[in-house]
Structure formats: structure tokens, C-alpha cells
């Protein structure tokens, strides 16, 4: 079956519906499947539950879906860079399920591995544990967390072959590989598309069996969430006041 599609709209054709759960890879603005997010926005699908480490920034990434009110609930770890996200949450317009970052990563990994739940010490005795089962193991308390599995996962890879074998680059490897395994259907966007055999098998992060559809995307400017600069020649750390 041909996996490579002409564009993001074609790659997502027949996969989108109101009320579905979508995993969106990336970390901050690094490794986000922006073209696939744009296609979801253009489709008009609504009432989405989106699982992502964060929600992009205003007007970029998942921030675009928040602007159009297509997201009903976010399952996330860090949301501090998006003013529209904060406004909707504080206004009662958006449901949020906060997770410690490591717990979120493990919930996704567990979902992809077919593990329905696991126990962790993270969050015991805090708001995170409210309403969840807490069990004792070897004299220590652990809170139960459920694995996560989505209707659709969208991921961004640095390189991939036409069979769907993917390689992620640096920070983009944080959530994309786990999400690729944890959905009924995974669609990937790839910066460098090559032929089968051109990627060393030992270098593959996501085997092609997990990828149903994919698109080749142009390499875009790498965005930085918060750019901090100093004048050339200025010391990195100001001298202590005397």
C-alpha cells in the first residue's frame, strides 16, 4: 500500500471526526507536525481531545486549533507559553488534564505497549493523585495512572523512507516516537524523504509498521519560543555587585 500522499489534506482524508482524540508530537516548537495541524484546522473538525506535551504558542502549532475553538480538552504537561490557552482555561472554555512530564511520557509509552495502567510515586500526596487509586508496594505509596491511546497520532520526523521507517533529530525525539505507537492510525510528516534501504536499520526510531500515511514537507525555519541574546563581547554572567 502506498503510504506517501501528496499533501496533508490527502493524508488525513477519512481519518478526522468530531470528538476524536489526537496525539500531536513535538516538544515546545521543536518537531511539531505543523502541516498536519494546519490540515486539521482547515477540516473544521471540532470537540477534539488533544494529547501533547504543550500547546505551542499563540498562532503557531496547536495554538492555531485553540484560536478556532476546535479543541475541547488538552492532556498536557506544560502550557505556559500560550496566552490563548490560559485565557480559555481560566474562562472555563477548555478542559485540561495536567500531567507531570515524565508521567505523561510513560502514559503514552504504556498505551503504545498495550499496558492499560501502571503505578508511579510521582504525584502521591498531591492534587495529581486526587480520585486515583493509591497502592502500597514495599512500604511506599504509588498512584495509578492510565495508559493513553488515541484515534490518531500526528508526528514529525527528520528523515523517513517511503515505507514509513522514521528517524527523529535531537529534541524532536522526545514525544514523537512514543506517540507513533499509541494510536489507531499514525500519520507522519518528513523533512527528508528517501527510498527503502537508504536508512541504516540500526538508526530507525519508528519502524514503518506503525506509519499508515506520510507526507514530504519542506524544511522550514526553526522557531525559538523565547530568544535570549546578549551584545557580542558582553559577559554571559554580569559580575557580582560590590
Order of helices and strands: HEHEHEHEHEEEEEHEE
Sheet with the most strands, sense and barrel status: 8 strands, mixed
What CATH architecture would you give? 3-Layer(aba) Sandwich
How many helices? The count is: 6
What is the name of the CATH class?
Alpha Beta
Radius of gyration: 19 Å
Shape descriptor:
globular
Quaternary form: single chain
Description:
This protein has a single domain (8-216), classed as Glutaconate Coenzyme A-transferase (3-Layer(aba) Sandwich), CATH 3.40.1080.10. It is 19% helix and 26% strand. The protein has helices at 8-11, 34-43, 63-67, 83-90, 101-112, 176-181; strands at 21-24, 48-51, 71-76, 95-98, 117-120, 134-137, 140-146, 150-161, 166-167, 183-194, 213-216. Strands 1, 2, 3, 4, 8, 9, 10 and 11 form an 8-stranded mixed beta sheet that branches. A 3-stranded antiparallel beta sheet has the order 5-7-6. Strand 8 and strand 9 form a beta hairpin. The termini are far apart. The model has no long low-confidence stretch (mean pLDDT 92).
For this entry, give a set of tags:
alpha/beta, Glutaconate Coenzyme A-transferase, 3-stranded antiparallel sheet, 242 residues, 11 strands, single chain, 8-stranded mixed sheet
What is shown here, in short?
With 242 residues, the chain is α/β, with parallel strands linked by helices.
How are the secondary structure elements laid out?
Layout: H1 8-11, E1 21-24, H2 34-43, E2 48-51, H3 63-67, E3 71-76, H4 83-90, E4 95-98, H5 101-112, E5 117-120, E6 134-137, E7 140-146, E8 150-161, E9 166-167, H6 176-181, E10 183-194, E11 213-216
Parallel strand pairs: 1-2, 1-8, 2-3, 3-4, 8-10, 10-11
Antiparallel strand pairs: 5-7, 6-7, 8-9
Amino acid at each position: 500500500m502506498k503510504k506517501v500522499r501528496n499533501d496533508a489534506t490527502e493524508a488525513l482524508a477519512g481519518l478526522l471526526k468530531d470528538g476524536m482524540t489526537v496525539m500531536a508530537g513535538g516538544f515546545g516548537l521543536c518537531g511539531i507536525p505543523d502541516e498536519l495541524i494546519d490540515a486539521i484546522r482547515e477540516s473544521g473538525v471540532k470537540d477534539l481531545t488533544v494529547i501533547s506535551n504543550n500547546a505551542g504558542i499563540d498562532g503557531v502549532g496547536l495554538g492555531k486549533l485553540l484560536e478556532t475553538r476546535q479543541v475541547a480538552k488538552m492532556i498536557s504537561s506544560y502550557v505556559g507559553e500560550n496566552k490563548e490557552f490560559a485565557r480559555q482555561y481560566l474562562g472555563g472554555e477548555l478542559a485540561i488534564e495536567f500531567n507531570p512530564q515524565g508521567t505523561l511520557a510513560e502514559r503514552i509509552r504504556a498505551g503504545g505497549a498495550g499496558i492499560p495502567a501502571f503505578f508511579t510515586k510521582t504525584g502521591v500526596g498531591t492534587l495529581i493523585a486526587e480520585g486515583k487509586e493509591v497502592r502500597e508496594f514495599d512500604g511506599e505509596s504509588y498512584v495509578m495512572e492510565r495508559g493513553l491511546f488515541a484515534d490518531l497520532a500526528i508526528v514529525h520526523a527528520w528523515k523517513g523512507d517511503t515505507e514509513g521507517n522514521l528517524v527523529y533529530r535531537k529534541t524532536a525525539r522526545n514525544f514523537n516516537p512514543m506517540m507513533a505507537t499509541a494510536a489507531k492510525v499514525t500519520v507522519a510528516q518528513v523533512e527528508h524523504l528517501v527510498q527503502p534501504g537508504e536508512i541504516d536499520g540500526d538508526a530507525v526510531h519508528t519502524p514503518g509498521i506503525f506509519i499508515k500515511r506520510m507526507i514530504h514537507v519542506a524544511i522550514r525555519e526553526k522557531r525559538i519560543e523565547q530568544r535570549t541574546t546578549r551584545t557580542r563581547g558582553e559577559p554571559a554572567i554580569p559580575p557580582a555587585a560590590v
